[in-house]
Amino acid sequence: MSDTILLEVTDGLAHVTLNRPERLNAINPEAAERWRDIGREIAERDDIGAVLFDATGRAFCAGGDVREMGTTVGDGSAIAAHADVIHAGHVFFRESGKPIVAAVQGAVAGGGLGFMLCADVIVASEHASFASKYSDIGLTPDCGVSTLLPEAIGMRRALELTLTSRRLTASEALDWGLVTEVVSVDTGGADAVARRARAIAEAWLAGATGAFGQAKRLMLASRGRTFQENLDDEARTIGAAFGTPEAQARIAAFSSR
Q1: Does the keyword Nucleus apply (predicted)?
Q2: Parallel, antiparallel, or unpaired for β 129-131 and 167-169?
Q3: H-type alpha helices, the chain
Q4: Which of 211, 221, 215, 213 is nearest to 243 (CA)?
Q5: Architecture of the CATH domain 5-205
Q6: DSSP secondary structure letters along 207-218
Q7: Contact 16, 6 (CB under 8 A)
Q8: Fewer Cβ within 10 Å of end Cβ, the chain: N or C?
Q9: pLDDT confidence of residue 185
Q10: Considering the chain, what percentage of its residues have pLDDT values greater than 70?
């Protein structure tokens, strides 16, 4: 089994770690296949209620491994096939119905933005940075960036980040809505980002886990549907949630206050 991306499942939490620190966690074909396979496993396992996504080393993800692309991956058709494998993994993660929190400890570039934006909540170190870099190497967005980036920060800012060499600081990324919160490493220690992200994941697992997953599904499914279709889905979903033991216990506790 490849160790380019690690998976550990404990007490309902799937911990996914990008693990190519010597290449700034850039994604090569081996890592792409591992990403797809982990995404499928998480989507199919009923014992997983939440996902914690992080990376080893000083960078979160530098996107595709451009050096390997240029020397061993092959021609354009091979690059497209490589992207298809990554994208299959993205679909599994996005459509799994499992809430995902990302702990971003360092630089994010290129397709790394797409990997990061597979998460629903993003906790970043104050020392993290964010850049597209596609324009610097004459390539176009992949890894879902053309969809996920404007979804997160709006089209005008997504175009600026993609078509220029602009690099965002963590505070700028927070202001733009690219990340959810920024953690001070200087006051919280080197593992402050990891601790905060894990606390979020554990709060999901301690709550009505199924409801979190359905809330995520409703939000994502709302795109491209009519308002009435979304309302009908909401009615069916909240009706189903109301009858679950998790909801009944929490409703009873709320009512007794």
Answers
A1: no
A2: antiparallel
A3: 29-44, 66-68, 76-94, 112-116, 134-137, 145-153, 155-163, 170-176, 185-188, 192-206, 209-221, 227-242, 245-255
A4: 211
A5: Alpha-Beta Complex (3.90)
A6: S-HHHHHHHHHH
A7: yes
A8: C
A9: 86
A10: 97
Q: What is the pLDDT of residue 249?
A: 87
Buried b (16+ CB within 10 A) or exposed e, 235-247: eebeeebeeeeeb
Residues 6+ apart with CB under 8 A from 151: 117
Phi, psi of 152 (to 5 degrees): -80, -40
Unique residue bearing structure tokens 């069916």? 236
CA atoms of 3 and 31, how far apart (whole Å): 8
Distance CA 158, CA 222 (A): 21
The answer to whether the beta carbons of residues 121 and 149 sit under 8 Å apart is no
Please name the residues in contact with 49: beta carbons below 8 A apart, sequence gap of 6 or more.
Answer: 12, 13, 98, 204, 205, 209, 210, 212, 213
CA 225-230-234 angle, to 5 degrees, is 155
57 — alpha (psi -120 to 50), left (phi > 0) or beta? left
Q: Are 152 and 117 in contact (CB under 8 A)?
A: yes
Query: 99 pLDDT exceeds 70?
Result: yes
